[in-house]
Amino acid sequence: MYLRCKRSPSSFPILKKKLRLFEEHSDLLQLFSKFYDLKTKEQQATSEDLAEHANKVMETLDEGIRGLDDLDTFFEYLHQIGASHRKIPGFKKEYFWNIEKPFLTAVESTLGDRYTENVQGIYKITIKFIIETLVTGYEQNDSANNTPTSPTANNTTEKSPPSQVNS
């Protein structure tokens, strides 16, 4: 079960901006069968499936940041997301770090003059904490199962939408 934090999705509008993760790391597209045919930047730029996947990446980061006020929910959610990446044949935990630079670039672009050295430091710490938590979830799943990922496993990170936590 995925948990949703209590804040509204508009709490962090900065995360609604599209990341350039797949533009800067197009090799990651080959991990997903539905993106095999996206060979050119034009095909990638016009792919609704790729845009949807990029939005899911952003929603995960958004959810992670919104969850910082409830660390139990934060860890559970991001550990589940990290663990779900074990189902992607060829995915390596190091790939999570590919999100750091595009995320920070999106933050800087969104904030403009407000992106000070102090703000940059805060976002660097935040994204590193999120990525480390994803990696931990990925590793915990590996040690809990202690079995190799099946080459026929579903190779998308699609999941059911998080359910609302009622408190």
Automatic annotation (TrEMBL):
GO molecular function: heme binding; metal ion binding; oxygen binding; oxygen carrier activity
Biased composition (Polar residues): 158-167
Domain of life from the UniProt record: Eukaryota
Segments for region (Disordered): 142-167
Domain Globin: 1-139
Keyword terms, alphabetized: Heme, Iron, Metal-binding, Oxygen transport, Transport
Classification via InterPro entries: Globin (IPR000971), Globin-like_OT (IPR050532), Globin-like_sf (IPR009050), Globin/Proto (IPR012292)
Ranges of compositional bias, category Low complexity: 143-157
Family: Belongs to the globin family.
Name of the protein in question: Globin domain-containing protein
Organism listed in the record: Hermetia illucens (Black soldier fly)
